[in-house]
Write a structure and sequence with these properties.
The structure holds two protein chains of two kinds. By secondary structure, chain A is an all-alpha fold. Chain A is built from six helices and no strands. Chain A has two domains: about 80 residues, NADH-ubiquinone/plastoquinone oxidoreductase chain 6, subunit NuoJ (Four Helix Bundle (Hemerythrin (Met), subunit A)); about 40 residues. Chain A is about 75% helix and about 0% strand. The radius of gyration of chain A is 21 Å and the shape is globular. The mean pLDDT of chain A is about 85. By secondary structure, chain B is mainly α. Helices cover about 80% and strands about 0% of the residues of chain B. Chain B contains three helices and no strands. In chain B, helix 1 runs antiparallel to helix 2 and helix 2 packs antiparallel against helix 3. The N and C termini of chain B lie far apart (about 55 Å). Classes of the chains: A mainly alpha, B mainly alpha. Chains A and B meet through helix 1, helix 2, helix 3, helix 4 and helix 5 of A and helix 1, helix 2 and helix 3 of B.
């Protein structure tokens, strides 16, 4: 049963990822990234990483990608020429991607021979994650809040500068 | 049973799609979206190894990556909006000036 779910969400993830990079309409790009995030969050649930899966759905799909959508609508890109791909690096880009994929397959294949494939019994519940987050990883956690503060300052100063110049 | 290899190969395919997106797109918005795909692929790897190694650190790193990506997206989109105001286009090719 879980194998069926895995293949369903994996196929959806790859297809929506392809729509992200291939569709010409910016709205389709953003909305298919929302679909990809939903599939990824379901894969996290299959891996029993419950907290991270829900956070991905809430913060990523709910806030970050809707922010993307908001900006796309704000920019009002009605003329198709503003969003066209010129495809100058198309061949080299696809070549680079397939070279990466080939070397990744070979490395993964040789790596999988050297280790056991049994999943452990850990569950990423809120209790387990919170316990380790507020004891061992409390310094990175505080630094992340500082990073978000600096990002807020950056956005405000960017917006202020553009208002002054007008 | 779903093994380690299934998840690793899926994350590799997703990462390759992200690389292709970053290199072939000319619009800044789609480059940002492809960067999100790259982050998603590495997140999948982290959670997979967290499950198969029995270590919570991988899931914590994914939590931090999500937070950092939120900051990165906010700054990136602010720069995209500024760029649209200055050159009224979001093609990366139109960013020719070093100073506005």
């Amino acid at each position: 049963m879980s194998l069926l779910f895995f293949y369903f969400f994996a196929t959806m993830l790859v297809l929506s990822g392809l729509v992200v990079i291939l569709a010409q309409n910016p709205l389709y790009n953003v909305l298919s990234l929302v679909v990809a995030t939903f599939c990824l969050s379901n894969l996290f649930l299959l891996l029993e990483a419950y907290f991270v899966g829900i956070i991905l759905l809430l913060v990523y799909a709910g806030a970050v990608l809707i922010f993307f959508l908001f900006v796309v609508m704000c920019l009002n890109l009605n003329n198709p020429s503003a969003f066209q791909n010129q495809n100058r690096f198309k061949i080299s880009g696809w070549l680079l991607g397939s070279c990466f994929l080939a070397s990744f397959f070979l490395t993964t294949k040789s790596y999988l021979l050297t280790r056991s494939l049994e999943p452990s019994s850990i569950r990423g519940t809120i209790e387990a994650i919170g316990k380790i987050l507020f004891t061992e990883y409390v310094l990175p956690f505080e630094l992340t809040s500082f990073l978000l503060l600096v990002a807020t300052f950056g956005i405000v100063s960017l917006a202020q500068g553009s208002l002054k110049s007008r | 049973m779903i093994g380690l290899g299934h998840y690793l190969i899926l994350s590799g395919i997703l990462f390759a799609i992200g690389i292709i997106g970053v290199t072939t797109s000319r619009s800044v918005l789609r480059i940002l979206l492809s960067l999100e795909l790259l982050l998603a692929a590495s997140n999948l790897s982290f959670v997979t190894f967290s499950k198969f190694n029995g270590d919570y650190a991988g899931q914590l790193i994914v939590f931090f990556v999500i937070l950092v990506a939120a900051a990165e997206v906010a700054i990136g989109l602010a720069i995209v909006v500024l760029m649209y105001r200055h050159v009224s286009s979001i093609q990366a090719d139109d960013l020719k000036d070093l100073k506005w």
